Amino acid sequence: MRIHNIRSITFYFTDFTTELFKDVLEYGVGPDVDFNQALGEFQGNLTELNALPNPVTLEGSQSWFLFSTDMNIRYTGFEMVYFAGM
After folding, report:
1. 65 falls within a domain
2. CA distances (Å), 86 to each of 4, 9, 23, 62, in order?
3. Phi first, then psi: what are they for 54, rounded to 5°?
4. What is the mean pLDDT of each successive set of 10 residues along the chain, which is 86 residues long?
């Protein structure tokens, strides 16, 4: 994701339901996806556990998310919204 002329992007999760250890969402900053440089990851049924991730603020105008799955058991996935900081 790239948004011109901003200083940061904050992501808020409203739902997160994936298969634990099999479906993983990783995130980082910059123009290129590089899971070796991931800043963090989320997985599992966090909505049901009442443990949605805290808001994630990434500095800069570019960020990436990489979702990996084994496509075995289907869950609803995740939903997030974002806000750009000027």
Report:
1. yes
2. 10, 9, 33, 13
3. -65, 160
4. 92 97 96 93 96 96 95 94 89
Q: What is the pLDDT at residue 85?
A: 84
Whole-number Å distance between alpha carbons of 16 and 44: 7
Q: Let me know if residue 1 belongs to a domain.
A: no
Query: Which range of residues forms the domain containing residue 28?
Result: 8-85
Please report, as a single letter, which amino acid is at residue 77.
G
Within a domain: residue 2? no
**Which residue, 46, 38, 45, 47, is CA-closest to 66?**
38
Structure tokens at 23: 């479906």
**pTM, rounded to two decimals:** 0.91
